[in-house]
Amino acid sequence: MKKILLILAISLLMAGCGGTPDTAPPYLLQGAWVLTHVDDPMGGHSDYDLQGQGTLCRVYDGDSIVYACDVAATPTSLVIMPKGKATVTLINKGGGELLYLEDSDPHPLSLNDSSFVIQDNGVLFTFSRADDIYREWGEEILNIIENELSRQEGFGNNHYILSAKEREQEKTIHWFWLTTTAIVALALAITRVAITNRRAKQQLQLRLLQIQEEHNERALSVRQAMVAEEDRFFASDAYAALQKRMASGLLMRDEDWQQVEQHLKDIYPGFINQLRSLYPLSELECHVCMLIKLRIPPKDIAAVLARDISTISTVRSRLYKKVFGRKGSTRDWDDFILSMGA
User: Fold this and answer.
1) Mean pLDDT lowest for which of 16-25, 97-106, 115-124, 198-207?
2) Average pLDDT, integer, range 60-67
3) In angstroms, rounded to a whole number, what is the distance separating the alpha carbons of residues 69 and 55?
4) What's the pLDDT at 197?
5) How far is 296 from 293, CA to CA, in rounded Å?
6) Could you tell me which residues come within 8 angstroms of residue 226 by beta carbon, excluding any fewer than 6 positions away?
7) Which runs of consecutive H residues, i.e. helices, occur in the chain?
């Protein structure tokens, strides 16, 4: 029994030490590499770089496909000549020993972070990592080689110039058009808003003129009747009760506002419609105007609406500017409200 428990304990310990399964290793060859050295078994040695005649460049797509091209650098561009595309297999034999197969042709390979060396019939080809080329031109190089492969005649001696200056110009043009489009869209939006506001202002001015004309054209007998009705209401017990309620500072209920609106309709039949036709009023703005029309002092308006008196003043001056398009005092707005009638 002890032996069984010991075996189980050892098994659990080994399982715990095993940890989580290893994730797939990252690609070892991904990116661009340029040929920098060639060493043959007889002691010969050749160096290559991007300047002058240039060198060979390999661009790996993962560890399964390689794109090859001759490449040379100038101060402002990169010149490439496509060479081919091949399938790649990278076999890790352990102990740091790698076997590299390109189109099934095996070659020993040694690799570090900055370079790799391929042996081909005893000749050592050293490639150095070229992150700048891959970052700037990698996708374009792959596209060019794929396009060459799609040509019926296959690879030719075509040279392609990848210009850093042209790329910057393309980026500048791209951002120019984006910026121009955004500016035009913004200008159109501002113009549309301006036209809408101008039309709304014109309609408001026309409505104000109509109200003034209605007031001026009102027959003397009608004006006298309205004045008599005002005098009667402001001397009535109903108005005294309303004033008392306002002075008490009690908040208004829905039925109280309905009663206020009915008083206004009885005295000034067209007032509510005229008020609402001038501007889209909020509930607070409408209530302030209704109480002004009934000669309720601002401090009492503030109390029954549970607002600071400064808020009531702001509402009145803001309404004047909205309706008339210019600054005005609270007194200016109150006088306008009091002048509105049937």
Assistant:
1) 16-25
2) 91
3) 9
4) 57
5) 8
6) 267, 268, 341, 342
7) 2-18, 131-150, 164-217, 220-234, 237-248, 254-267, 271-278, 283-293, 298-304, 309-324, 330-339
